[in-house]
Amino acid sequence: MSRAIDTDDFSARLRRKAVRVPERQLLIARIAGSEQEADLRKPPNCGGFGRIRHFFRDHGVDWPRNPLPIDPASRALGLSAGDQLHAQVFQNAACNWRCWYCFVPFRLLDANESAACWLTADDLVDFYLAEPEAMRPKMIDLTGGQPELVPEWVPWTMHALRKRGLEGSVYLWSDDNLSNDYFWRYLSDADRELIANFRGYGRVACFKGFDELSFSFNTEADPSLFGRQFDLYARYLRTGIDLYAYVTLTTPSDSGIEDAVARFMDRLQALHENLPLRTVPLKIGVFGVVKKRLARAGARADRRITAEVNQFRAVEAWSRELERRFSSELRARSVMDVPIGKV
Questions:
Q1: How far apart are CA 293 and CA 252, in angstroms?
Q2: Residue 42 CB: number of other CB atoms within 10 A?
């Protein structure tokens, strides 16, 4: 295994390269012309810096249904929740981990100006509004990359939406890999209050594995940072943000999966007893950019293909644990109606 990423040092270096706070600019990945473009269902939009993402509830009979962000967005917008939802996506051009299954080319994660452009949240909202109304989704997804390397991006976007009278009529969604504390280090109390109270905003944080081995294998980060994810999630729970979680269940080892998944769920419940019901396993697939990455990975590719297979044992264990720990009534609730509240 190659040397683990020094996450704190790498995060700091990427932040310096990825944001200009006085100008309220951040590096946004240029999707048009990139390797990622070939994987898209629709061509890039918004001047080449955006794309339309299709969120699907169903991911096959071998995987639990995924209500995120379909259900929270639909409720916020007063829509009936269907089995898919379209979103306008923008990607910041920096990420401090290198998940092997990431569908974004690593070149678009290096805060490289040749693959990105300095833009403001106002620029992005203007790009969004310039799209034909009939083709413009009612949801904006701020992703990456790791958006929380530039935590200002969310409140800047909220201000841009408010200025245009769009708060509540456009749903805003962002994600976080639970790798740093920049939400508290760089945002003001007013910023954090805005995020917690903005009408039509949801955040999902992704646990990149269910134990130290799967976490470090997936991210190339030090195994000790697996525990940091829980500490950061606990802090987010206290903010009052409408908060959800993903977990990726890929692992290179087929030994002890059931016990490790149970211990992972124990740790979620130590944060809040209902948190597993707001946590959705993400199904990892190999296609496009990831296939090319694996083709270049040599011997490491075999372990990653094994990890993709092992996720099915892990998700079976996950489903059994949910049935064992929660009543059928609670499991049947919509993901938004599972109480976790402030703790």
A1: 17
A2: 11
Decide: pTM greater than 0.90.
yes
Side chain identity at residue 131, one-letter code: E
Residues of the chain with pLDDT under 70: 1-2, 299, 342-343
Calpha distance 210→51 (Å, rounded)? 30
The CATH code that applies to domain 7-337 is 3.20.20.70
Residue at 93: amino acid letter? A
Joined together, the tokens standing for residue 168 give 């509540």
Strand partners, 87: 53
**Rounded CA separation 314/297 (Å):** 24
**Nearest alpha-carbon partner for 233 in 177, 281, 282, 195:** 177
Q: Residue holding tokens 């199904």? A: 283
DSSP E strand stretches across the chain: 19-20, 25-29, 50-56, 84-91, 116-120, 139-143, 171-176, 201-207, 243-248, 279-282
Chain segment 39-85, per-residue pLDDT in tens:
999 999 999 999 999 999 999 999 999 999 999 999 999 999 999 99
Q: Cα(227)–Cα(148) distance, rounded to whole angstroms?
A: 18
Residue 251 near residue 215 (C-beta atoms within 8 A): no
247 within 8 A of 275, measured Cβ to Cβ: no
What is the rounded distance in angstroms from the CA atom of residue 103 to the CA atom of residue 99? 9
User: Which residues on neighbouring strands pair with residue 170, listed in sequence order?
Assistant: 167
> Which residue type occupies 263?
R
Q: How far apart are CA 31 and CA 90, in angstroms?
A: 9
Task: Please report the pLDDT score of residue 341 as a whole number.
Answer: 72
What is the secondary structure of 204-253 as a DSSP string?
EEEE--SSHHHHHHHH-B-TTHHHHHHHHHHHHHTTT--EEEEEE---S-
Q: How many CB atoms lie within 10 A of CB 328?
A: 7
Instruction: Delimit the domains of the chain by residue range.
Output: 7-337
